[in-house]
Amino acid sequence: MTPRVLQIIGWALPIGAAAAVAAWGLLRLIGLITNLVFYQRVSSAMVAPGAAHPPAWLVLVAPVLGGLVVGLMARYGSEKIRGHGMPEAIEAILMRRSRVEPRVAVLKPVSAAVSIGSGGPFGAEGPIIMTGGAVGSILAQALHLSADERKALMVSGAAAGMAATFNAPLASVLLAVELLLFEWRPRSYLPVVAAVAVATIVRGPLLGTAPVFPMAADALHPGAAAELLCVVAGVIGALLAVAVTALVYFSEDTFARLPLHWMWWPAIGGLIIGIGGLIEPRALGVGYDVIADLLSGRAAISLIVGILIVKSLIWGLSLGSGTSGGVLAPVFMIGASLGALEGLVFPAVGPGFWALIGLAAVVGGVMRSPLTGVVFALELTHAWPALLPLLIASSAAYGVSALVLRRSVLTEKIARRGFHLSREYDVDPLEVLYVNEVMHTDPACLPMTDHVGSAALLLERTVPRPEGRGGDTPVREPLQRLFPVVDADRRLVGVVPRQSLAEAVGSAPPTADLLLTRPVVVHDDDTLRTAASLFAEYGVTAAPVVARDEPDRLLGLVTVEHLLDGRLRDLAEHHHRERLITPGRWVRGGRRRQADPL
User: Fold this and answer.
1) Which of 129, 361, 410, 470 is the most exposed place for a label (fewest CB within 10 A)?
2) Whole-model pTM?
3) pLDDT tens across 50-61, in order?
4) Could you tell me which CATH number the domain at 217-264+278-416 has?
5) If pLDDT is split at 50, 70 and 90, which confidence band does 598 have?
6) In Å, what is the CA distance from 538 to each residue of 30, 434, 541, 558?
7) What is the DSSP secondary structure assignment for residue 464, as one 8-state letter?
8) In this structure, what DSSP letter does residue 471 have?
9) Which whole-number Å values give the CA distances from 337 to 49, 333, 375, 396, in the listed order?
10) Quick one: pLDDT at residue 505?
11) Domains of the chain: which residue ranges?
């Protein structure tokens, strides 16, 4: 870790505090608009739109007007406010070098508050991720930072906003790692943790420190039978996750075919929401009260079924309209309702247990973030005895979802815009091999006193790979493209590129006339990743290898083809199958052991 990382951590601290205040402000704004629209009063308390059974005309009209306002804000403010926040944050990180427009920091939370406050069945977490990320990005853009450092601060703000919204610091860090950072390094992890810690502390006086959905954890006593059934719950949760993901993108495709400007789409989505609200009013809004009822075991069967069907439909269909709102709270509600329905059939474990399992399973299936789903469920409820069942259900859902769907609801949108996105973490094969394992130890060299006319035969010289490297994968030995120049003591003086040598063979100038005296060199104890970075930085495809303690002592030559040896080893380990222990060898080995007097 470098002192530069400490500076980034220092900048992450105020970003965490600002993101917490932004989260508090967004929740208050949602409460204010909800109260104004559905209760005709001035209050910023969080209330459910359908709790007081508002008039049918209001349930139908309010989401339409809210969608119209969001469409106008996107058309004439910034199109970046469309969507549920996470894909937009990922796109900003990967495609725009973590640059977010300042107006997005204002328009995104306002549009989300309008959408949710007018009855939209969305969550506040997606908008606050984009808002907190915008706060971090704006500060980073005002500083002299690299794109990676801007990413660290942007993700710090996003994770801090999430932590302040749900009082879930560890889950927010995991979400940052699993969804936003695309790496696990001190330079990005530590700033995120610093921002999340500050945001969680600042949240205390603003929103409290209690769990958002407290459960009676002492009443939970899952046994082996329940834990086995968690696999079934995970599979069912994954199938539901696949269904709602398909619904979201069916909706998006359908809206894209409409002969209307996209500005009007959120209003049409609002009409869908209003119709659903007439069927089940409690499906409107963020739905924290419904999640609490489901996790406490107080929900009636009519509410469970109504939420499962209506919430899934209006959320999936309206989200495709490009309105502003998050996916996490709706997924919590849909998953908890599925689990509560399963709890009517599965053996009783404790109040809300199966609803909690369903919540984690659907999160694991929809977001493809199994660890985030587990920790979120635990931090939201403090139901620590459910750790193992949650891990089983979430991982089972993740596995089924990964088998059935190529991409999650978060990454499909980015893929549809023509970008490739991978969320699989793996050790870089170039990081585990050293240069001295793959380099050519006997390259053809030019003496400093020679003329290049006598070196014509060297142009046919190839650079062989070390024997056995790359498993069973066939390799092609390239022509030597760089010739080290050495003095009488075999000390490296410089290099002559192959092209220069080929052009000068006929005229036979002295070697010194073609000499590059300050070549790019690598050390024998460098990793292949370090060598690849040097090749990319200086635009070379070959370099002499020297000793670190004797920079003029030539040890060999490494080329870009040698760098592929790390990939070849990775391919061999992935595809080459062999049986190392056979029954006959085992028996013979056993006989030898029996005969061994020792």
Assistant:
1) 470
2) 0.78
3) 777 889 999 999
4) 1.10.3080.10
5) very low
6) 52, 20, 9, 15
7) P
8) T
9) 19, 6, 19, 18
10) 67
11) 3-207, 217-264+278-416, 429-575
Taking Cα atoms as reference points, which of 357, 391, 388, 396 lies closest to residue 374?
A: 391
Q: Quick check: do 3-207 and 429-575 share a fold?
A: no
Give me the numbers of helices (H) and strands (E) for the chain, helices first please.
24, 6
Q: Coil, helix or strand for 155?
A: helix
Q: Could you give the strand order of the β-sheet that contains 554-559, starting from the edge strand earlier in sequence?
A: 522-523, 542-546, 554-559
Q: Which residue has the tokens 């007007």?
A: 65
Task: Write down the pLDDT at residue 202.
Answer: 95
- pLDDT confidence of 575, banded at 50, 70, 90? confident
User: Residue 501's pLDDT band (boundaries 50, 70, 90)?
Assistant: confident
List Cα–Cα distances, 472 to 463, 523, 571, in angstroms: 19, 28, 10
- Could you identify the residue written with the tokens 């003329």? 451
- State how far the Cα of 133 lies from the Cα of 109, in Å rounded to an integer: 12
In the CATH scheme, what is the code of domain 3-207?
1.10.3080.10
Strands 542-546 and 522-523: parallel
d(CA 108, CA 74): 9
Sheet holding 492-497, edge to edge: 446-447, 482-486, 492-497
**CATH, domain 429-575, list 2.40.50.140, 3.10.580.10, 3.20.20.20, 1.20.120.80:** 3.10.580.10
CA distance 352 to 219: 10
pLDDT per position as a tens digit, 322-340: 887 778 888 899 999 999 9
In this structure, the strands spanning 482-486 and 446-447 are parallel
